Amino acid sequence: MSNSKVQIVMTADASGAELVTFAQQTADALVMQNLTRSQIRSIFTEVRQIEAQWGKPDAVRRLSMLKPKLAYQAARANSVSLLRDVLGDAIDQVLASPANDKAELDKRFARFVDLFEAILAYHRAKGGKN
After folding, report:
1. Are 20 and 101 a contacting pair, CB within 8 Å?
2. Is the pLDDT of residue 126 over 90?
3. According to the model, what pLDDT value does residue 2 have?
4. Which residue has the higher pLDDT, 66 or 13?
5. Residues in Cβ contact with 114 at an 8 Å cutoff, skipping those fewer than 6 apart
6. Is-above-0.90 flag for pTM?
7. What pLDDT is attached to residue 93?
8. Other CB atoms within 10 A of residue 87 CB
9. Are 120 and 31 in contact (CB under 8 A)?
10. DSSP 65-77
11. What is the Rg, in whole angstroms, of the alpha carbon atoms belonging to the chain?
12. Predicted confidence band at 129 (pLDDT cuts at 50, 70, 90)?
């Protein structure tokens, strides 16, 4: 999974078609690496909490801090490594939004959440372990 693919999904995929395809491919790989639903869910819970606070001053900081949490989870279980890489690249794309363009920041964060939701859904559909 390449950084350029994540960049396209996050910045140039108005229809969402690339996001869906990328999420399917990522979920396939995560299932093959034996990523469990509980591992992915623990990270998704944090994303939902950030989403609930989005627009408040600390939300962007919490999103940035998700990268070290992902690194920790990947260090504990190698099966999290691909998810760490994909989500880390996606977080970088959100944070790369122009500082004075709140609308772009919000759009990229929404795409980040969409990407993660799609990965989670396909992981479940493809038989990801509990």
Report:
1. no
2. no
3. 60
4. 66
5. 16, 19
6. yes
7. 94
8. 23
9. no
10. HHHHHHHHHHHH-
11. 14
12. confident
Give the tokens for residue 34. 């034996």
CB atoms within 10 A of CB 122: 19
Q: Tell me which residue of 23, 26, 6 sits closest to 82, measured CA to CA.
A: 26
Are 31 and 126 in contact, with CB atoms under 8 Å apart? Answer: yes
Q: Which amino acid is at 53?
A: Q
Asked if 66 and 94 touch (Cβ cutoff 8 Å), the reply is no
Query: Does position 26 have pLDDT exceeding 70, yes or no?
Result: yes
Contacts of 63-72 with C-beta under 8 Å, sequence gap 24+, read 63/91, 63/94, 63/95, 63/109, 64/91, 64/95, 66/91, 67/91, 69/43, 70/43
CATH 3.30.70 fits 17-125, yes or no: no
Between CA 105 and CA 43 the distance in angstroms is 21
Residue where the block lists tokens 């799609």 = 118
**What is the tens place of the pLDDT at every residue in 52-71?**
999 898 999 999 999 999 99
